[in-house]
Amino acid sequence: MQSVLSSLLLAAEAITVFSARKMMIIIILFFLRQLPTITEQSHTQVAYPFDEDFTIKCEARGNPQPTFNWTKDGKPFDLLSDPRIVASNNSGTFVIQNRGIITNFQGKYRCFASNLLGTAMSEEIELIVPSVPKFPKEKIEPLDVEHGDSVILHCNPPKGIPPLHIYWMNIDLQHIPQDERVSMSLKGDLYFANVEENDSRSDYCCFAAFPRLRTIVQKMPMTLKVSLKHANDSGSPNAAVTKANFIKERKPKLLIPPESAGSSSSVTVIKGGVLLLECIAEGLPTPHLSWIKVTGNLPKDEPETENFGKILKIDQVTTADEGTYQCTASNPMGRAKHEFHVHVEEPPQWIKEPEGGVYSVGTNLLLLCEAIGNPEPTIQWKLNGMPIDSRTFRGRISAREISLTNLQLQDSAVYQCEASNKHGTILASANVNVLNIAPLILTSDGENYATVVGYSAFLHCEIFASPAADIRWTKDDSIEPLSTLRYELNKNGTLEIKETRKEDSGSYACWAANSVGKRAITANLDIRDATKLVVTPKNPRVLKSHSILLKCQSEYDSHLKHSFKLSWRKDGDQLPVNSTENGRIILDRDTLFISSVTLEDQGVYTCVASTSLDSVTAESQLIVLDVPDPPEDLQLSENQNRSVRLAWKAGASHNSPINESIIEFEENRWEPGRWQELTRSPGNDTTALLSLAPYMNYQFRVVSVNAVGRSQPSKPSLRYATPPAAPDKNPENIRVEASEPNEMVMKWEPLKPVERNGPGLEYKVSWRQRGVEADWNEETVKKHSLTLRNTPTFVPYEIKVQAVNNLGSGPEPNVTVGYSGEDVPDAAPSGVSVDIVNSTLVKVFWFGIPRDRVRGHLRGYKVRWWKTKSMLDGKRHHPEKHFLTFVGDRNYGMIPGLEPFSEFRLTVLAYNAKGDGPESSPIVFETPEGVPEQPRFLRILNFDKDSVTLLWGLPKKANGHLTGYILQYQIINETHEIGPLNDVSVTNRSTLSWRLSGLSSSTKYKFYVKACTVKGCGKPVTEEGLTMAQGTYAGIYDGISTQGWFIGLMCAIALLTLLLLTICFVRRNKGGKYSVKEKEDLHPDPEAQSIKDEIFGEYSDSDEKPLKGSLQSINGDIKATESADSLVDYGEGEHGMFNEDGSFIGAYSGSKEKGSVESTGSSTATFPLHA
Q1: Cα of 961 vs its chain's centroid, Å
Q2: Dist CA 1148 CA 253 (whole Å)
Q3: Contacts with 535 (C-beta within 8 Å, 6 or more apart), sequence order
Q4: Contacts 24+ apart (CB under 8 A), 1033-1039
């Protein structure tokens, strides 16, 4: 409580904006007494001669307003004692004007600020009044020395404000060169370890620079003369110098520290400062300086030295730098040493400072003061700026603490603790203010607070009271203090409600009471719904160059909608609201759209939603997938004649693991610039042993593959050449080709460049006739073919091809059998005969030609046939030839598509790759009668209510002698149900019309007409019609049917009806009532049925529907007058083909008669159909 009140007192003095609460604090403090406190003071001050005045600051606060007085060097100092001092009102600050001699102002000042409660004291303020530094005017005698002597030129710079910089220069302001022999000490003297003749000069000048005083002063020039001794002992000056030097040679002697200091000395350095140890030696030859630390190690492996090794420097000294250091000066004549015992000391530093505060009457006081330093500081306590007399002080006092019991109002005072050693003094003050006041609540009454569910709520109740007040909080109308675990009362009176809930809303009261009085205030708390966020999609994986849309879905309390804000961050950095990168990244409040995603877009995207009460975030990590980076650093090792190991470093996989590495090669001997795949290795392998071919100059590269795709190839490796070798393999695919009968061309696949294995590749070809005892014939060629002429026709040869190069031959080659050139067969098949299968199909038999008459590889046989005359009318026909090809060595074939009741001639020939052989002698055969084709048309005439007249045309092809017609009819209705079928046989083949009686009126009928021969009846033609309801209509029809206008009307109606029937036909083909199958089932073709049973069973055991289509084709769809082109669809190439068993390919698998039946059966509708 004391520290809280103390902080309130300090804060009140800085108030500039007068809110109600701050105004209350000021009113309270206005009536409260306050001890003086120093708020600002000067420290060491230098009175520079070029300044107009010098300000010594001392500011303090207190109530009542403090008064100020000063001491100088421990004695009272009156600011009115000198007119050059200008004092400030209500302040201890004064100004000394720079007029006249001001050296008497130099000294140590201390400021005291006092009021009725006590006195505050400042730290000592030292004012330094420097004099203008000057070298004394003096006459400096020249120095005469001999060559090799040591010399010291003293600078003795005047005193001044540091820092001091000393320079040795000549009269032309050029620096005197310094080195290991000639150098300047820290004090500014110039040391010569030994002089040389060129050191003689009369203008050695020492310059002292004081930057803070803006002054540089120069000492009078000094003269140094170096003479040669014993110069007359030799005729040569150089010899004289050498002799003199020999006489002067001596071991090193330390000039700094001087010999009088002994072999060791002590050095004290302040912790944190800079340690400078200096050794300067004289001697001839010039001594060399080195440093070691006798106790412990040097702070660095190589100690930092300056001035050509003569100064050892350590910055930021610590206690670890304490110890003994040794410098050694050495030359060939000997050495000199000196030890420095370094002690690290430090000025006082606080461990514990006394802390003041506001105390209640009757309480106890304990002030602690503790400091460290080297030497150990002394502690002195002061009361109101004066040393405490322990004899009169009513409390207890020791070096480290002061204690008082039962404090009273008069115990208010300023206590000072001062710690000192030889390196400095530090001062700490503690204001002890003893008060007795009833509680004052600084927080306004009726404050409204709000928070969101799950967050903590803080209800403030700031109290000023002495003695300290007891504080308790209540809710709503309850008088019981809040005490559950979720309620926490802080020391400053604030009530913290943790993990708030909706039911925490309400009115709260803060009660404060002490022995002097009590106070209370109220506060209102509202609990809002917490804001919720989710970013979708969560952690998406996106291919580079694709697009991604992140959406931030949020829920928040409706009371907070005016303060609700959304923003986006990427990897913690705010994304601008406006679109970025030329519109590639677009932010639109709750959406973030990134088009053409790059690898740099990868990262964590955070949606931030904030209201006046809470702030929440939701993250989604965008993972960008891309092809791998190219592999790097290809290295070759384990070099062998046929292998080498390739190693590489995999590139970045870009979030998709590398599945495999493709190793490619390029060789510049055979195919320079062409990269080819050599092998592949699993994705996590970065090395592979490569199998190589001889006589290649390889370089390699690696391509990494992941699920996204392939990387760019790596940079190529170094080239690796393999030595040549004999071939490892022989050519493949050896074959014989010939275009002439007495010629044989042997060909093979040449070896690839990687298979050559060496220079000078050739092919050794060996051949001999098979079955003949003879030596191998050989010929070596560079091409990949060899032509032999004057060979027998179609004779087998054994052939070998072996690869050969300059280093040897390949393995023993395999023997391949090939034949010399072919010629056309020279014999025709014999024993040709024909078996009649039915009226359109025959089976042909023949005897094949002998093997030796084929004169090549037998390809098969061709059957040619042509029609000579019709058996119906006896007319002869122009011979239009047809043929079918039967592949392979066979002796029979099936000839389909013949015209019934006709005479044909037929021949057979053999063929090979060279061409066709001679044809056999023609044989003559006749096809029997067949069933007719359907009549050309069917029309319905003279419809009556119970009768109808049918008119039909002759069949397109009779295929034999007509024996009559079969008429059939049946009732059909709108439900597409079929009635019983009625038959009428017309035995007179000349009859082309018929009147049917006994029909039902107003009934729809379907009529069928088909022509017949002795072989049976053909396919029917059909028509539908509707009988009339009354006989009068029939009379009208008979009267007008002969009129011209009526005939025109009927034609128009017929065209329209034809269109409608065509539509019906299409629908029926898709599954309508009158399918081909139903018609065939209703009207079976006896001849077709016999063909199915007797013939086609041996061609195929399939029950598939295409077989039925085959029958229909044979029944008459293949016209006898058609050319051979009509059979192209059923044969090999342009001729057609038969299977091995003689079945005709395609004739029974592709033709559908359903369409042909329907289209043929359609005819122009008659008027009664629409009556």
Answers
A1: 88
A2: 130
A3: 550, 551, 552, 553, 605, 607, 618, 619, 620
A4: 1033/945, 1033/1171, 1034/942, 1034/943, 1034/944, 1034/945, 1037/942, 1037/943, 1037/1167, 1037/1168, 1038/942
Q: Is the peptide bond before 672 cis (omega within 30 degrees of 0)?
A: no
* pLDDT given at position 1073: 37
Q: What residues pair up with 972 in beta bridges, in sequence order?
A: 978
Percent of the chain with pLDDT over 90: 59
Edge-to-edge strands, sheet with 470-475: 447-452, 518-528, 506-513, 470-475
Buried/exposed 941-955: b ≥16 CB within 10 Å, e otherwise: bbbbbeebebbbbeb
First to last CA, the chain: 119
Among residues 92, 81, 98, which one has the least CA distance to residue 46?
98
In DSSP terms, 515 is beta-bridged to: none
Between CA 404 and CA 388 the distance in angstroms is 14
- 848 CB-near residues (< 8 Å, 6+ apart): 829, 858, 861, 889, 890, 891, 910
Give the model's pLDDT for residue 1081. 39
Q: What is the mean pLDDT of residues 410-415?
A: 90
In this predicted model, what pLDDT tens digit does every residue of 927-972 receive, in sequence order? 999 999 999 999 998 878 888 999 999 998 889 999 999 999 998 8
Residues constituting the chain? 1171
> In the 3-class helix/strand/coil scheme, how is 796-825 assigned residue by residue?
EEEEEEEEEECCEECCCCCCEEEECCCCCC
Q: Give the phi and the psi of residue 653 in degrees, each rounded to 5.
A: -85, -10
**Average pLDDT of the segment spanning 451-455:** 92
Q: Is 1148 helix (H, G, I), strand (E, B) or coil?
A: coil
Q: φ and ψ at 1157, to 5 degrees?
A: -65, -45
Amino acid at 591: T
Give the H or E element holding residue 619: strand 615-625
| CB atoms inside a 10 Å sphere around CB 572 | 8
- Which pairing describes strands 201-210 and 222-227: parallel, antiparallel, or unpaired? antiparallel
* Average of per-residue pLDDT values in the chain: 83
Give the dihedral of Cα atoms 705, 711, 715, 721; nearest 10 deg: 30
Cβ 542 vs Cβ 622: under 8 Å: yes
CB 510 within 8 A of CB 459: yes
pLDDT band for position 771 (cuts 50, 70, 90): confident
Whose tokens are 């009635």? That residue is: 979
Residue type, 1141: D
Q: What are phi and psi of 429, to 5 degrees?
A: -120, 150
Cα(1025)–Cα(948) distance, integer angstroms = 9
Amino acid identity of residue 705, one-letter, is V
Mean pLDDT across 685-704: 94
pLDDT bracket for residue 879 (50, 70, 90)? confident
d(CA 466, CA 259): 72
502 and 453 Cβ atoms separated by less than 8 Å:
yes
Rounded Cα distance, 823 and 854, in Å: 8
List all residues 6 or more positions away from 413 whose beta carbon is below 8 Å from its beta carbon: 35, 117, 118, 383, 384, 432
Spatial separation of the C-alpha atoms in residues 342 and 344, rounded to whole Å: 7
Structure tokens at 1048: 């025109």
Token digits for 448? 């409204």
How many whole angstroms separate alpha carbon 215 and alpha carbon 183? 24
User: What's the rounded mean pLDDT across residues 1112-1141?
Assistant: 36
pLDDT tens track for 38-47: 999 998 888 8
850 cis-preceded (ω within 30 degrees of 0): no
pLDDT over threshold 80, residue 1155? no
Of residues 525 and 1068, which shows the higher confidence score?
525
Cα–Cα distance for residue pair 25/8, rounded to 1 Å: 8
Q: What angle do CA 445, 446, 450 make, to 5 degrees?
A: 125
Task: Take residue 37 and report the two structure tokens written for it.
Answer: 């406190």
